[in-house]
Specification:
Chain A is built from 14 helices and no strands. In chain A, helix 4 packs across helix 11 and helix 4 packs across helix 13. The two termini of chain A are 40 Å apart. Chain A has a single domain, classed as Orthogonal Bundle (MetI-like fold). The longest helix of chain A is centred in the last third of the chain and has 36 residues. Chain A is 80% helix and 0% strand. Chain B is an alpha+beta fold and 351 residues long. Chain B is built from ten helices and 19 strands. In chain B, the strands form four sheets. Chain B has a six-stranded mixed beta sheet with strand order 6-7-8-3-9-10, sandwiched between helices. A five-stranded antiparallel beta sheet of chain B has the order 14-18-15-16-17. In chain B, a hairpin with a 2-residue loop joins strand 1 and strand 2. Chain B is elongated and about 80 Å long. Classes of the chains: A mainly alpha (292), B alpha+beta (351). Chains A and B meet through helix 10 and helix 11 of A and helix 2, strand 6 and helix 5 of B.
Chain lengths: 292, 351
């Protein structure tokens, strides 16, 4: 009997494992593709930025008022867009996960629109809405409100493209946790805010942080929508990606790559935070899972 | 506190979960809502708690109508079927939650949590997380959490449903003793009639959104209001028969051989397994010839499976072990079944 078992088990184990040549082929091709189209370009950005020495690098970053301004502008727009996306994302994810209402399916579909539509189109939509020929343009002008070609338009356009990220992160978590703990909190006398801050938020905290990180990365890198609504006035409403493109068009390679290296560096920080949190998330799951 | 339900109805789309339910629970009683799944018992419990709104009717706590009040303002203790403990909080914070949202000072909360941990006999576990506890411990924490703010009503939704058989029996006895100590009006939902009988002062039997019978466990078991209650509360033997001069007779009794003469008076007769006797010799005209198929002598009560030789139907009989010895019957033997009590209900329900 024991012999039979081992003779059964041996070929099974072999079948489960792919042959060595296939494994190495797949690993090598994956690694080389990543190196070729991600690794080398990223390295090249830093190489080009520092090609003429660190002196020139810092000079082109800090002694150029327009470049400096673009860094500050991006760093001020991104948090505002993220803030709005988080408020909206929390409300939308909550509504979709907890309530059944007419239009719920449409809301769910519309939420994904920014992922599907080109950001340039989004930018154009804002121009058509707020431009002088647009619906609200004349009214805004008569009340001395400047939206297009200034910071509010940049925030709005950035918001448009970052909306789905928080919702997409929160929805599955909200649905997985279910509403029983929330109902328990209400039955114990908690009001809406107490329930949200003490029960719901701790349960979705990590998904929310993850959504914010993705949102932030997308906000800092946004080009298309912002390009259309900004008006591209140097030192006034050029964000980092727009500034990089302008420097590049003006053949200021060192300046363009120096600024690109800053943007890349910010992205790498974002990735680092994300990786750190993912590790922590795993640890938390292992000591708090299996409550049911 | 007395709880009254008046004409409560609830529909989910076109499904009628509750249909004009009315009843009153006296102060301090422990009541079981008993019924098969889909009978509306959990919906009723949630309406009493304020976690669900009735379409019609009203809920009253003593003289106060609470129909439109939210669960938060009703001061009820609700124990969920799957406990619904806050998984990111320690046992201490779970139990203290109801007090801390009411803004009680820390020392007061600590004192009350200490009392409750003593009550549920889980002292020393206050810094554990729910995932580090067994099912029975979690259930007791959920109960302590519900009791923390001294609720006027304690509501339990299938409180022992997710536990294994041994822990379930321990916990339900513990709940009974606990109720005798604290005397808070309590309602629990269950589909297990044994559990309802073991714990409750009063049983409310429900089916398809309606109440079939309300009464003490003995009352409901001994005098079921209809065939559904009779069938739901325990095993039952069903015989074809008729009323002869107002007395139920089973087809197959020696005075009623052959098919019933008049279809209009044909009746279904219900007999519990312990209401049947086995005799080796025919001593009465009220007996059915039967063959013993199987004898299951596990425990003091012996379960005998017989085949009714007239209708070929299987009949279950429960007799004492001493009676079995006395009779000396064996499998395959031909005997007579003699009913001690026959029941007839108006035919509104088919088994």
């Amino acid at each position: 009997m024991a012999n039979q078992i081992t003779s059964f088990a041996a070929p099974k184990k072999k079948r489960l494992e792919d042959p060595a040549w296939l494994r190495y082929l797949l690993i090598t091709s994956a690694l080389s593709v990543v190196t070729l189209i991600i690794g080398i370009p990223v390295f090249h950005v830093f190489y080009k930025a520092f090609e003429k020495g660190t002196g020139v690098y810092f000079d082109s970053l800090f002694n150029n008022a327009n470049t400096l301004h673009s860094i500050f502008l991006t760093l001020s727009i991104a948090p505002r867009a993220v803030f709005l996306s988080v408020i909206f994302g929390l409300a939308a994810a909550w509504a979709i996960a907890r309530f059944r209402f007419p239009g719920r399916a449409i809301l769910l579909t519309l939420m994904d629109l920014p992922l599907a539509v080109s950001p340039v189109v989004a930018g154009l939509v804002f121009v058509l809405l707020f431009g002088m020929q647009g619906w609200f343009g004349p009214w805004l002008a008569s009340h001395n409100l400047q939206i297009l070609f200034s910071t509010p338009a940049l925030v709005l356009a950035t918001c448009f493209v970052t909306l789905p990220y928080v919702v997409r992160e929160l929805l599955p978590v909200l649905e997985a946790y279910g509403e029983e703990e929330e109902l328990a909190a209400v039955s114990l006398g908690a009001n809406g805010w107490q329930m949200f801050w003490r029960i719901t938020l701790p349960n979705i905290r990590l998904a929310l942080i993850y959504g914010i990180i993705l949102c932030n990365a997308r906000a800092m890198g946004e080009f298309g929508a912002v390009y259309v609504v900004s008006g591209r006035i140097s030192g006034f409403n050029d964000t980092m990606p727009l500034r990089i493109e302008k420097l590049f068009q003006e053949y200021d390679m060192t300046g363009a790559f120096a600024l690109a290296s800053v943007l890349t560096f910010l992205a790498l920080i974002t990735l680092g935070v994300k990786t750190y949190l993912e590790k922590n998330m795993e640890n938390r799951h292992s000591d708090s899972g299996g409550t049911k | 506190m007395t709880i009254s339900i008046k004409n409560v109805s609830k529909k989910f789309n076109n499904f009628s979960a509750l249909d004009k339910i009315s009843f009153t629970i006296p102060d301090g009683e422990l009541v079981a809502l008993l019924g098969p799944s889909g009978s509306g018992k959990t919906t009723l419990l949630r309406i009493i708690a304020g976690l669900e709104n009735p379409d019609e009717g009203s809920v009253h706590y003593s003289d106060l109508e609470v129909t439109t009040k939210s669960a938060k303002d009703r001061n009820v203790g609700f124990v969920f079927q799957h406990y619904a403990l806050f998984r990111h909080m320690t046992v201490f914070d779970n139990i203290g939650f109801g007090l801390s949202v009411r803004g009680l000072p820390k020392e007061k909360i600590a004192q009350r949590v200490g009392e409750l941990l003593h009550l549920i006999r889980l002292e020393g576990l206050e810094n554990r997380y729910p995932s580090q506890l067994s099912g029975g411990q979690r259930q007791r924490i959920a109960l302590a959490r519900a009791l923390a703010a001294q609720p006027k009503v304690l509501l339990l939704d299938e409180p022992f449903g997710a536990l294994d058989a041994k822990v379930r029996i321990e916990l339900r006895e513990w709940l009974r003793r606990l109720h005798d100590e604290i005397h808070v009006t309590s309602i629990f939902v269950t589909h297990d009639q044994e559990e309802a009988f073991a714990v409750a002062d009063k049983v409310v039997v429900m089916r398809a959104g309606k109440i079939e019978q309300i009464g003490s466990p003995t009352d409901v078991f001994e005098n079921p209001a209809n065939a559904f209650v009779m069938d739901f509360l325990g095993q039952v033997n069903v015989f074809e028969g008729m009323l002869v001069n107002g007395v139920p007779r089973i087809t197959g009794f020696s005075d009623l051989k052959g098919p019933p003469q008049n279809d209009f008076c044909s009746k279904t007769i219900y007999v519990r397994p312990y209401e049947l006797d086995i005799e080796v010799n025919l001593t009465s005209i009220e007996a059915l010839p039967a063959k013993i198929m199987h004898i299951n002598p596990a425990g003091p009560v012996v379960r005998v499976h017989l085949q009714d030789l007239n209708s070929i139907a299987t009949v279950f009989v429960e007799i004492n072990f001493s009676k079995l010895k006395e009779l000396g019957i064996t499998t395959g033997q031909k005997v007579y079944i003699q009913p001690k009590r026959l029941r007839i209900f108006t035919p509104d329900y088919m088994i």
